[in-house]
Amino acid sequence: MEDSMKGKPFTIYIFVFLLLLLILSEAGPVFPDPDSFYHAKMAMILRDQGIIHTFPWFQFTDFKNVFVNPHFLYHVLLIPFVTFFDPLVGMKISAVVFGFLTFFVLFRILKAMHTPFPEWFTLAAIFSINFFHRMTLPRAPALAVALLLGLTWLLFSQKNRLFLFFGSVIFVWFYHGWPVLLLSVFAVFVAEVVASHLLFLGSFFQALHTAWQARKKDIFVVCGGLLLGLIFHPYFPQNIFFSVLDIFKIGIVNYQSILPVGQEWYPMTFVDLILWNTSVFVPLALCFSLFLPGLFLSKTTQNKKDISIVFTFLFLAGGYILLTLKSNRYVEYAIPFIILTSASMAPFSKHFFEQELSPLIQTWISKKSWRKKTVVIMLFLLVSIFAADTIHMTLQKETYYSEAQYKPATDWIRTHVPAGETVFHNSWDFSLILFYLDDTHNYIVGLDPTFMYDFDPKAFRTWQDIAAGKGNIKDILSVFHARTIVVDTRLDDAKTFMEQLDHSSLFTEVTKNEWIHVYHSTTSL
Q1: How far is CA 171 from the centre of its chain?
Q2: pTM (2 decimals)?
Q3: Would 231 be classed as within a structural domain?
Q4: Which secondary-structure segment (H or E) carries 485?
Q5: In terms of domains, do 77 and 224 share one?
Q6: How many Å from the N-terminal Cα to the C-terminal Cα in the chain?
Q7: Whole-angstrom Cα distance, residue 3 to residue 202?
Q8: DSSP code of 429?
Q9: What residues contact 384, with CB distance under 8 A and at least 6 apart?
């Protein structure tokens, strides 16, 4: 089996298979979340208007006065896709291209590590349901993960510090999650300390000094690049204040206990993490179980680089697993670093397996054809399960979003509501689709409810109560200055809210479809 899988043909087969899965995942007009509509619109605005510093479309956030685009370079890269194709089709094509690139970067790092079976580790990442799903989202995370993996490898290998420096600058301009690169700096440094302490048996402070001397240039290069990226950012100095809100209040504190935050910010159980990513945890368990005996058996135990790379990826994988148990969005970082942890242990594990276990297994299993058939059957089952799950996730129209669901609402609003008026909506997320379809009107809040809560907690509570059918309908006119309401019927309290509107003499239903109902009032504001 090993001989038949070696060489470029197997690599080509894997990436052709990956490309087909990516195309399949993007088939159809639906999107997993509304963010893709926002990114498409922002790329179009950047193309047509240049850099904008106010965002009047979300009236009950700070954005209406001071706006920071944390995905600036991502939107620059999207411009060709939304220009040469229908914008939403372009977003799907970009997801295929960027997702493919991320897996390719992971594969190239595995090759650079000289790990055995880099194709199989890449395949394990492809079979990770959570990771594959995150990498197919028409959003920034796919390229952000690729950039983080590449910069982490440059940081560890101490190769091309010029690329490392400018890559750090680009990361700040590209993605609001740039502080994760500091975790890589910390992991590389601590791994250097641990490796020095274990191999040379000196004092901890001596190991700390040795690690600092070995890594101080890389630390200064990355930190200098991040600082330069912040200072010379197109939105400086507002980007500093935005980072405090976006990174600290949303990413770290996370108001999930008091706000209806996005699904990706809720925790993932450890059981679900393993079940949805079995293809990644099985190699980790195998490599980890054979790593220590393989380390003692190996003749390269005095190579500090071999040991420090294991600890670097082990620390990062462990850290991101803990973060994933707090907010499931961090799984996009956890999975590739789990793969790299397994791959870094693989040379030691392979050595022990070939020397000690392989002869015993070959004696026990006398017929190789039986082994091959078993592997083929297992792979076929994995592919079938993964493909079925991909198709299922693609066709979940009851939870996914499309342009057709909201276009009747924005068509009516464009025709009957004066430009510049605010439209009330019963959820913070689908306002991004309304914004994409109609930028001649304003909305309450979008991107994250924290932006409204931080701007005006009282208005947030009022909006939340009204959308739940518990508030005073008159406040829609008096507090939010909105005469038009768009209700997504898929929300839990939508029925109660609509019953309240139907019994009100202030609003009348003007249009609807399977997903949305639109109400309007002729009362003067």
Answers
A1: 14
A2: 0.88
A3: yes
A4: strand 482-488
A5: yes
A6: 74
A7: 44
A8: S
A9: none
Total domains in the fold of the chain:
2
Domain that holds residue 128: 2-394
Which of the residue ranges 4-18, 303-317, 329-343, 362-376 has the most confident prediction, judged by mean pLDDT?
329-343
CB 328 within 8 A of CB 256: no
In this structure, the dihedral spanned by the alpha carbons of residues 475, 476, 477 and 480, taken in order and rounded to 10 degrees, is 100
Rg (CA), the chain: 26
What is the C-alpha separation between 344 and 347, in angstroms, rounded?
7
What digits encode the pLDDT tens for the residues 144-196? 999 999 999 999 988 888 999 999 999 999 988 889 999 999 999 999 888 87
> In terms of domains, do 411 and 381 share one?
no
Count H helices and E strands in the chain, helices first: 24, 5
Question: Which strands make up the sheet holding 508-512, listed edge to edge?
Answer: 442-443, 422-425, 482-488, 516-520, 508-512
Contact predicate 167/228, CB 8 Å = no
Six-digit token string for 405: 């669901």
Query: Would you say 509 and 499 are in contact if contact means Cβ atoms under 8 Å apart?
Result: no
User: In this structure, are 270 and 184 located in the same domain?
Assistant: yes
Token couple for 71:
């995905």
Chain centroid to Cα 238, Å, comes to 24
Q: What share of the chain is helix, strand, coil (3-state, %, to 5)?
A: 70, 5, 25
Report the mean per-residue pLDDT for the chain.
85
Mean pLDDT of 504-508: 90
Do 493 and 387 fall within a single domain?
Answer: no
d(CA 28, CA 2): 38
